[in-house]
Amino acid sequence: MKLRAFGSSKNDPGKDSSDTDTGPESSPGADPASAGDARRPAGKGKPTPRRRDQERARGLRTGPVTAPVTRKEAKERRKAVEASMTKDQRKAARAEQRSAREERRQLMMQGDDRYVLSRDRGEVRRFARDWVDTHRRLINFFMPLALFVIVFQLIPNPELMFYSQNLFLILIVVVVVDGILLGRTVNRVVRERFPDTEDTGFGMGWYAVMRATQPRMLRTPRPRVRPGDSI
């Protein structure tokens, strides 16, 4: 009875033939990685060339465009470019460079944030400059008086040198005291105008003092207001 049942199940016509498939995919010992490698197309055997290499091969690029590291390198690049130009082209290029430099200088003097120094950028620093330019203080006369004292120091007169030295010491004291008061005042008005700013403290006070000690004609950026104007 047991042998007859075994034989009938082996020859059962209703059994699916797929259940007895012994192919590599259904065999328990088959390696999935090897099967996947068999189905994967063969590679081209070399890495894909980079875009810049392809452009260089077609003549669209001669090399990587990098900024010069030193002034010597910048000068050598400029000479190499000028060597490939005619005399008229060099004149035109130099005239264009002078015009561009002058334009940048004028924009810097006007206070354009794209061209001024990092210390002068921002609305807060612009307001501090305007406040200093609209007020007259004793510290504004530091440089003229210092030059006056230096001239008197060069005169070989002991009495005159004694008085000039004392005048210079008094000038230093006045500048220090007025500079401290100026720095505190500028910080106060900046906080009132820009309550959320963090550009205050010693840095802002020193910035105001340095501008106040310079003559108006030498201040950079150029003053936009006159003494006594409201800002």
Describe this structure in words.
This protein is an all-alpha fold and 231 residues long. Among the domains are: 84-115; 120-218. Helix content is 57%, strand content 0%. It is built from 9 helices and no strands. The chain has helices spanning 2-10, 32-39, 51-57, 71-83, 87-109, 123-133, 142-153, 158-193, 202-213. Helix 8 packs across helix 9. The chain is extended and about 85 Å long. Residues 1-30 and 32-38 have low confidence and may be disordered.
Poorly predicted tracts of residues: 1-30, 32-38
Shape: extended
Distance between the ends:
114 Å
pLDDT averaged over residues = 79
Helix and strand run: HHHHHHHHH
Biggest beta sheet summary: none
Q: Helicity range of the residues?
A: 55-70%
Q: What is the helix tally? A: 9
Q: What is the total tally of β strands?
A: 0
Give the radius of gyration: 41 Å
Organism: Dietzia psychralcaliphila
Keywords: Membrane, Transmembrane, Transmembrane helix
InterPro entries: DUF3043 (IPR021403)
Protein name: DUF3043 family protein
What features would you highlight for this structure?
0% strand; extended; disordered N terminus
